[in-house]
Amino acid sequence: MSSSYRLGDLELHSRLIIGTGKYKSFEENRHALDASGAEMITVAVRRLDLSTRSAGSLLDWIPPDRFHILPNTAGCTTANEAVTTARLARELLDTKLVKLEVIGDPRTLFPDTTATLEAARILVADGFTVLPYITDDPVACMRLEEMGCAAVMPLGAPIGSGLGIRNPANIRIILESVSCPVIVDAGVGTASDAAIAMELGCTAVLMNSGIAGAKDPIKMAHAMKLAVEAGRAAYEAGRMPRRLHAQASSPEQGLIDLS
Amino acid sequence: MKYVLNGESHETPDPLSVLDLLSRFDLRSRRVAVAINAEVVPKSRFAEVYVRDGDKVEVIHAVGGGA
Known about the structure:
Chain A is α/β, with parallel strands linked by helices. Chain A has helices at residues 26-36, 58-61, 79-93, 113-125, 138-147, 168-177, 191-200, 209-212, 217-237; strands spanning 5-7, 10-12, 16-18, 40-47, 68-71, 97-100, 129-134, 153-154, 183-185, 204-207. Chain A has a single domain (16-48, 56-237), classed as Alpha-Beta Barrel (TIM Barrel). Chain A is built from nine helices and ten strands. The longest helix of chain A has 21 residues, at 217-237. Chain B is mostly beta strands. Helix content of chain B is 10%, strand content 42%. Chain B contains one helix and seven strands, in the order βββαββββ. Chain B has one helix at residues 18-24, and strands at residues 2-5, 8-11, 16-17, 33-36, 39-41, 50-51, 56-64. In chain B, a hairpin with a 2-residue loop joins strand 1 (2-5) and strand 2 (8-11). Chain B is globular. Chain B starts with a strand and ends with a strand. Chains A and B meet through strand 4 and helix 3 of A and strand 4 and strand 7 of B. Strand 4 (40-47) of chain A pairs antiparallel with strand 7 of chain B, so a sheet runs across the interface.
């Protein structure tokens, strides 16, 4: 069993945080959540559709008393929108947590770093536990930590791309540059991507499409659980040094003369 | 009095608290949050905050989402 970690006031054991978007049904979503072992899940907040208001609710399937609900500000493109969305989510879900996202470009969904920093400053001052989605920019991560964010969440690759950890060197530099938890958010496409993030020393991995977009989301949720645990255990174990040349692992003395 | 609820125009002759509004649209039992003109209305004040002429009201809930 690997060690626990903290995000703000929370102590967490599972290092996998999963989203609740793109599932075929609330039921599939719930089964994937159970298979993942995740303790924290992200949700979005949106206008209630008044024409279909009798439809079931996500929170009927994913009860907030059993999971830590992490509302996001997905879709926001200004600091003001993100701040208001976070405050609405706090009122809705009775949580101080927010996954801060301020999108700078609709095509790439890369974050607007300036607006993210501005919103983070306001939300930290307002008592939120701020978990910001950000590019894999070590300086932006340092600034977010200085402002009092509870973690930094650099992307591994664009949201929904499944391209994996495109710049592990930057993730390593971020890990050296901040002392708060580093959570890779976005880009994980399959189990090995999650393991790589964890082997680098990240605190946790946050993903949605990597599970929901799999042919069998429930099986992939289980695969991601194992990958995150394996990657973390390998990080804690400390890997062997890489060598260019072979080094025999059987004794070279006492070889039998069979000529 | 005219107001906009989740993007749709509505009109009523009666004074309308946020609580009245939620009742009118059968939302009292739903877990929702409310903003008027981009300002959050705390749940504890639903009965005492009134919708005014021209207000833009947003009623939101949690939906599936990742990033």
